[in-house]
Amino acid sequence: MKSALVIGAGPAGLMAAEELSKVGLSVTVVDAKPSPARKLLMAGKSGLNLTKSETISAFLSNIYGPDSLRDIVSEFGPDVVQQWARDLGQEVFTGSSGRVFPKVMKASPLLRNWLARLNQAGVQLRRNWRLTGINAGALQFETPEGLQVLHPDVTVLALGGASWSRLGSDGKWVSILAQNGVSCAPFQPANMGFAVTWSTHIERHFGQPVKSVRVTAGDQSVLGEFVISSRGLEGSAIYAVSRAMREGAPLTLDLLPSRSLEDITSRLSRPRGKASLSNYLRKTLKLDPVKLSLMQEFSRPLPTNPAELAALIKALPITHQGPRPMDEAISTAGGLPFDALDDGLMIKTLPGVFACGEMLDWEAPTGGYLITTCLATGRHAGRAAAAYALA
């Protein structure tokens, strides 16, 4: 029986292991941490957004990478992901935004069933095994039993990106590939918050959501919400435009996306009387205290001219001090470039060694795009590795 080794027990690695086991290979999965899929479990604390229920063309438009990556995802898109979860005994539901979650709203039952299915297929899981080198087909590991060297017939790397290092994604594998002549694109934070040095008057809003706003940066724009934290701006709407922000595009907020500029201008043209400007805006436009505070924070003194004030409400400029540190980011851009891989995601200079998941150079916003793409690339690499081993 030929042997297959998967390094990394996250979603991409486990998916690759499953594909390899289906064709009768002896499959071993190793992970540097004491337990598998730690980042998946962390994501599951907020509901485990598996995918997004939308047309495949709309879904693929949110994935930044080569056309070959989008082709891979199209083979394991939102509908297939949902059926995959059901096959693992996890019914799913679609929220009002189109995001798809397990009905139990956590990751642990799905992971538990998945690991059980892999175990029944004969897949072995070895914990606390850290890759330290690749040399002429031999893979070296630091393990609780000391140095171990494996010589599998085929290997799939699913080593993650470079954020949340405490969960296992530390990017240290880059130096190992460099020793084998494989250069990687520098890592950058993705789906991250942005630092803001707040004035004291905003402190009472720390932890509060800013709801029903349109967030725009460059050519990226999304209707959603985000959170004001002591460290800056965080949350799904910020993450959705973080790529453009990281590249220098200015950030603006439409605080009343359901109202037109003309309607707001008309309403602000009504007499104010003795009311303060804040009270006038609150009563006339139903602006809540959080949005009013953001206006004061970034555009004080506020204009009194109705047209200028309306324009500010529709496009409030937000200044920030750049991305939060990469290790706080949900994901990373950069990593192993696709031009170093063949169509099956095999590393061209390392025959028999494939790669998948977040260690590849791509990015996508949260909202189901990240996990779906990791699963899809793991499936693709696993299938290609199985064909290579059996050829």
- Mean pLDDT value: 96
Low-confidence stretches: none
**Overall helicity:** 25-40%
* Spatial sequence of strands, sheet with the most strands: 12-15-14-13-16-17
Annotated CATH topology of the largest domain: FAD/NAD(P)-binding domain
List the total number of helices. 14
Measured distance between first and last alpha carbons: 13 Å
CATH level-two architecture of the largest domain: 3-Layer(bba) Sandwich
Number of domains: 2
Helices and strands in order:
Layout lengths: L2 E5 L3 H12 L3 E5 L7 H7 L6 E2 L3 H5 L6 H8 L3 H10 L4 E3 L4 E4 L5 H13 L3 E3 L3 E6 L2 E6 L2 E5 L3 E4 L15 H6 L6 E6 L3 E2 L13 E9 L2 E10 L2 E3 L1 H5 L1 H5 L4 E4 L6 H8 L8 H9 L3 H11 L6 H9 L1 E3 L12 E5 L17 E3 L13 H22 L1
Parallel strand pairs: 1-2, 1-10, 2-6, 10-19
Antiparallel strand pairs: 3-5, 4-5, 7-8, 8-9, 11-18, 12-15, 13-14, 13-16, 14-15, 16-17
Salient structural properties:
single chain; 391 residues; alpha+beta; FAD/NAD(P)-binding domain; six-stranded antiparallel sheet; five-stranded parallel sheet
